[in-house]
Design goal:
Length: 264
């Protein structure tokens, strides 16, 4: 039986509340400032209320456990944990590959409905590669690509570069095998001596970090679905071509994924 649905999703920096009618139509979307002491009973209008993402972690509102792979994309209802009128979803853990995720399983439902079995990547602070087979999460790989990217761009080697340089012809692909510590300093050298722009440095650094992911993923991946709303995630398409992988970009729309729970 279809019911109206409220979904609270977020992490340490922002929360977002989605309201769905029983038809599955999104009726409201609100930004909420993180409030660890918030009264959950005052939030949400749905007949079913679900809390997901890092809000279900030790740093969130209520910590849940993990379900181990292989695991269905849609978490079974008997694993949801109830508190203050809300249901908190568990994360997913891959013990074989020392990887885990919270909430990314929900963000895959729309793309999996379109593309079916295969490998998916959700770029982010912690990028997740997820293998799907017959509606089951079979494997997970985790990389702190976004976190490293932000820290390196803000670090002393790259943050002080001015943006006054003109664009220069610079192809980073040939340098992807360099250790990241050497690669970063070479980027600074190319800015200083070859007029490479800050924008190009950002692209090159992003590609070098993503290259680590492709080099680690040696399962002979033939097709990759990149699920994201981040501009820099387009670099996965570029790197996929370099490594001989057919890649498709699927724009991430959290609301399109969450509505699948209306009938769950």
């Amino acid at each position: 039986m279809a019911r109206s649905l409220s979904v609270l999703d977020g992490g340490t920096s922002h929360w977002r509340l989605y309201e769905f009618a029983a038809s599955g139509n999104l009726t409201d979307q609100l930004e909420i400032s993180p409030q660890p002491a918030i009264e959950l009973t005052e939030l949400g209008r749905g007949q079913l209320k679900v809390c997901a993402g890092m809000l279900t972690s030790a740093t969130g509102l209520f910590e849940t456990s993990y379900r181990a792979t292989p695991a269905p994309i849609m978490c079974p209802r008997d694993l949801w944990m109830a508190r203050d009128g809300w249901h908190f979803l568990p994360g997913v853990v891959d013990h074989e590959n020392y990887a885990m995720m919270r909430g990314e399983d929900l963000l895959l439902m729309d793309a999996v409905e379109v593309y079916g079995d295969g490998w998916y990547v959700l770029p982010g602070t912690h990028s997740k590669w997820v293998n799907i087979k017959a509606g089951q999460i079979m494997a997970i790989r985790s990389f702190i690509t976004g976190e490293l990217r932000a820290q390196l761009l803000a670090g002393p080697s790259l943050s002080g570069l001015s943006s006054g340089h003109a664009e220069a012809t610079f192809t980073p692909i040939g340098n992807l095998s360099l250790p990241i510590s050497e690669f970063v300093f070479q980027l600074r050298y190319c800015w200083q001596h070859h007029g490479v722009s800050v924008a190009q440095i950002e692209v090159s650094l992003t590609q070098r970090l993503i290259a680590d992911e492709f080099q680690r993923m040696n399962e002979n991946i033939e097709r990759l679905i990149v699920v994201s709303d981040r501009a820099w995630a387009q670099q996965y398409i570029t790197l996929a071509k370099h490594y001989g992988v057919s890649a498709t970009f699927h724009r991430l729309d959290p609301a399109a994924n969450f509505k699948h729970m209306v009938n769950n």
